[in-house]
């Protein structure tokens, strides 16, 4: 596999999109230089297989056939073994059934699997946010990060490399009850034109419509910044699915994720 220079990666978007029109936001985030990572291809002039790694230990593989992917399987196994030796994370997002089959053949006995739904927001559904008496809405800042139990500074360091990078390039909304952060919606990843939403609400505040409020403000901010909101969740996470559909997200695909135990 050949490592591409950063200036070459945006040129590969069309090829990846032809294989997987609904590829993950973190792939664009790396190719746009929003977060650190690398893109490898089997052939620089006429790539058939794309392997992308983000520095946080998540990966994406896309190819047009199982046979082409299997020719690159030794490289993928080497990456997995390197991460295992370093006790690092290995979570691989599959592009299609071809990738599924390849991963099961080369690492099936070493990895766990799950299925996830991918959604994109339909702008035709947009509704203005409504105030929620008794709660305060703020953009994510250093004070919110410090007070957060789910999205503390370590979260942004893991996915964005550093908090400053998120504060300058990411999007985040917090709902506060006095000084307590009780619900949050942040871009776990963002590219130049897309943002993937991560969301949380304190258990004692659930059922009050705060997740809906946070997500609506998040969607509004994404659209202001001309970034299309995306939403991913486990196929068994019924509350997340229900909220996504209530907000106006439309399902793009169901895909498979492979991950190792740490």
TrEMBL record:
- Identify the Gene3D superfamilies for this entry: 3.40.630.30
Give residue ranges for domain N-acetyltransferase.
130-262
Listed InterPro entries: Acyl_CoA_acyltransferase, GNAT_acetyltra_YdfB-like, GNAT_dom
- Annotated Gene Ontology MF terms? acyltransferase activity, transferring groups other than amino-acyl groups
Which is one Pfam family of this protein? GNAT_acetyltran
User: Could you identify this protein by its name?
Assistant: N-acetyltransferase domain-containing protein
